[in-house]
Amino acid sequence: MLYVIIPVFNRWHFTRACLQSLQEQKEQNFRVVVVDDGSTDGTAAHLAREFPAVEVLPGTGQLYWTAAVNLGIRHALARGADRIMTLNNDVVAPPDFIESALRWARRQPSALLGPVELDATTGQPVFGGETFSFLTHQRHNLLATLPPEDRCGLHPVTYLPGRGLLIPASVFVTQGLFDERHLPHYLADYDFTSQARRAGFPVYVNYDTHLLTYPDDSGQVQTRQRRSLRGYYQHLFGIRGGGNLRNFTYFALKNAPVFFLPFFLLNGYLRRLLGYFLH
């Protein structure tokens, strides 16, 4: 049984649209768990009234993404889940999303699979997977290099984000849950999938599965649009900071090859210290 885990904190309009899209899936053999981490906008009442079939786990308000997802995963595994999908609330799943993801999961039962992301406003692809060099710190964007005729099926990548990430339960048995201690919000998904790949689990972006997202509404984008000294501090040190130096250091120590580590750290620190003002 597939369990879909959705961490939420407020933004009910996103959560409603996401859950409605899941209700409209062609494939309905899955269960949905929402981890409501202390929402103050009536999310809990709305869920009980509009989506009574959804399982809701309350949080403390201090879980953030990683601990919230882990809470849902523990719940699902205890109930016999053989696959877990992590899904943000600010996404919309096309009707064939689950069906396509499970079709490929049956062909590659040990693989971690992620969808191609389309901008929900324009329909244009915004994420199609990437490979990453720890030596040069360069990302190779598959969307920029794959010809149209090859934009189908599975393509290997270095890591995947948690939006629509499909994970076999065997991965959790092998390496445990997401690293909520060191990576409470950002980079936990990239770390988890990178660790899984190194442990022998294939990691693919699935070009036959699409997910609609709102890239301009992410916390990182909004922080950079409102550039300020306070925003810069939050960017580098806040739990939700996309350039959090502490989180990056832990990610580097866990994932970068030891011979590349000094250069990778230096390169990464410079990118985070300067990138807030340059992008």
TrEMBL record:
Residues 4-111 form the Glycosyltransferase 2-like domain. InterPro entries: Glyco_trans_2-like, Nucleotide-diphossugar_trans. Pfam families: Glycos_transf_2. This is Glycosyltransferase family 2 protein. It comes from Hymenobacter armeniacus.
